[in-house]
Syntaxin-18
Amino acid sequence: MADVTNVFKATVKALKSRNKFINEDLNNEDLSKNILALGKRYESEFQHKAKNLVQMITHLRDFLLENRKKYVNTGSLLSSTGDEMSESERDLIDNNAQDIIKKCKEMIILLKLETDKQKVHPQVKEHRQAVLILLETYLKAICKIYSEQKAVRVKRVVDRKRISKLEPERKYNNLRRTQLKQDLILNQRIPNGEDKPLLGTESHDTHNKNSVNPAIFETTPYNVDTEISPEEAQIFEQENKILYEEMNSMMDEVKQIETQVVEIAKLQEIFTEKILEQDVQINAIAKTVVGTTENIKDANEEIREAIKKKAEFRVYILFFLVVCSLSLLFLDWYNN
């Protein structure tokens, strides 16, 4: 056989040059349009709904993280800025977040039902189920962020109420201490020989005691610790003990409230997880119910067929008995 390798190479080269010449004459815009047309892919309804759901959850996450600082900061007594968030705005954020979370859960449930009803390739069905699991995980993470923010808000509101209850008691205690100090200063400034004033000067002395100039207390040095009597020291010690016990009890109450708030947040997180698990279980039960109804329909059809077959079998038996009886009668007649 002759070697035609050189002829084959020449033919290939000629075809390449011809195709290159043809491609140079084509319009570049038409080529780009053809490439774009080939690159387009069909987007199914499931993909469209899943993308919308992801966008909705992402918008909720961005909104919560954007307003997190203002939402958690329930109002500081030291801050005088006007960019704080009011309680009505926080309640509005809570309502909107809860509505969006509820809507997302309903959309996931509807997508699950639609995925189960559609007859597609097993790999496509498995892929869609994995997408739904990822969407549920993403939604759980956003629910956790929201529950943590709400728990911090509740905790700070409780702390603020507790502090507001403590303020009048502190003011009263400070006023009482200043009054005791003034009484001590007055008692120390009165000489020992003037403890029993004359009858004519009693009213004048009481007037002087009640109208003491506060500038005297500022100019004259006085050390309370070195000049307090044992009885007054005992009174102060008792007051300090009472205040210390009150503060300890209040601190214990605040700690208990903190632990309760944290437990409430944990319970809320567990509650959301259980709700999602119940949704999965409800969907599984719905699938089982659908399968059971189909099985019942099949069983009813089989029972009907069995009844028909049984009726036909009865007819055959009756026909056989009639034929046998007639044949016996005929044989008996024939023998006679």
About this structure: Residues 45-74+85-190+226-279 form one domain. The radius of gyration is 47 Å. DSSP finds ten helices and no strands in the chain.
